[in-house]
Amino acid sequence: MYTMPTPSSGVWGMVAGPDGNLWLVESRNQVAKVTSSGVFTEYTIPTADAFPTGIASGPDGNLWFLEEGLHGTNNKVAKVTTSGVFTEYTIPTADSGSRNIAAGSDGNLWFTETPANKVATVTTSGVFTEYAVPFANARPSSIVSGKDGNLWFAEGSGNRIAKVTTSGVFTEYTIRINVPDWQNFWVYSLAAGPDGGLWISESFCAPCSQLFEVVKVNTSGDFTEYRLPTSSIAASLTAGPVGKIWFTYGAQPKVASVTTSGVFTEYQIPQSAIVIAAGPDGSMWFGSPAADTIGKLELVRT
Question: Are 221 and 172 spatial neighbours (Cβ–Cβ below 8 Å)?
């Protein structure tokens, strides 16, 4: 475990950078890079109270992140070079409520605008294109680039996920799972698997009990459920080493992996975590918005 230099900074996103370091966004208006041995360098975002959320490694060799601001007031996408130089771009839609960002197959960055009900793209020079999600009150949230070249995103208001092509054509899939009242299932996190499938963690199912499952969907919209070995909710998902999907439990001090055929392995960690990412050193890194430390799980290869 490594203690973050700024107290109460909180981690809201992590990604492996092109410079061989781990990069993360902190709630106290900073972006940080961390070496594989846990040495931090923090950079202050030019805009005060940026409240950065989501971070992605861009095709231009920079790190891209969103500035939601307190109550959605900042409304910016920003990039930072590996030496800490920032450029900020204002999103065309006011109060867009941007949440998550991913690099697309078209060489652009894609992100969701949750309350605005849009998915948007920005070029590496800061040119925006926004697409209105054609499904009412979809509240798009988590977004990932799929192996099929499309962008896949979660809908926060119901039991659906959707994909959008790089030209802005949408397809929606209703999640049909084998539990009571599956209509109230909604997605917390998405990850693109090495087998081309999209992996889903559930966030809430009301009025039914929590599901304690992860779900895989193929690009044709067929769903497969896998029961978690621990009765807890999976939080953030990410693709990781050895062809597995990795996730945190959120409420449990554990990190787990699952193979594309649904075989789980769990690892005890010192504290519960929300955020997880595959680091450039081959380890799995984890942290939480509520903690002043981040940690890594070193994998022994045999």
Answer: no
Task: Specify the 3-state DSSP secondary structure of 62.
Answer: coil
pTM for the model stands at 0.92
Name the β-bridge partners of 296: 285
128-136: long-range pairs with CB below 8 Å, 24+: 128/89, 128/91, 128/92, 129/168, 130/92, 130/93, 131/164, 131/168, 131/170, 133/162, 133/170, 134/170, 135/160, 135/162, 135/170, 135/172
Query: Could you give the angle at the alpha carbon of 150 between the alpha carbons of 144 and 154, nearest 5°?
Result: 45
What is the rounded (10 degree) CA torsion for 178, 239, 258, 98? -40
| Contact predicate 154/198, CB 8 Å | no
- C-alpha 155, offset from chain centre: 14
Q: What does the pLDDT look like over 70-110, one tens digit per residue?
A: 655 678 999 999 999 999 999 999 888 877 999 999 999 99
Taking the C-alpha atoms of residue 241 and residue 264, their distance in angstroms, rounded to an integer, is: 14
What is the sign of the dihedral through the CA atoms of 100, 104, 106 and 109? positive
Coil vs helix vs strand at 212: coil
Give me the sign of the Cα torsion angle 222, 132, 130, 49.
negative
